[in-house]
Amino acid sequence: MGFNDEFRDRTKQFALRVIKLFRSLPNNDEARIIGKQLLRSACSVGANFRAATRSRSDAEFYSKLSIVVEEADESAFWIELLMASGIVSKTKLESLYNESIEITKITAVSRKTAKFKK
Fold first, then answer.
1. Residue 17's Cα: distance from chain center in Å?
2. CA–CA gap between residue 6 and residue 30 (Å, rounded)
3. In angstroms, rounded to a whole number, what is the distance separating the alpha carbons of residues 111 and 79?
4. pLDDT tens, 30-79?
5. Is 94 a residue whose pLDDT tops 70?
6. CATH code where residue 84 lies
7. Residue 29's domain spans which residues?
8. Which ranges of the chain does DSSP label H, i.e. alpha helix?
9. Number of domains in the chain
């Protein structure tokens, strides 16, 4: 299994973890609004990385990878809000937050490498 396959699985697992988190959120407006934003961005991470690996050109690869970086960073933001607002405890979200940061860093480096290949 190569890097792309492993990272495709990793981003899918990230999305699945967020789905489980979303299901466990309190049933109030602020939790649901932030939760839906997180759900959307986290699922987009996996979907766009998958699309990047199937890209038809270097430009398309770079573009899709840029979306992954953006959505992973946005996911980190929504997780930060859930923690800072006290909706979910920091200890419950720390691992998920760290994963969003790692995914952001890995794809940002990959994007930079792809840019220099051009």
1. 11
2. 34
3. 23
4. 999 999 999 999 999 999 999 999 999 999 999 999 999 999 999 999 99
5. yes
6. 1.20.1440.60
7. 3-117
8. 3-24, 29-53, 58-84, 90-117
9. 1
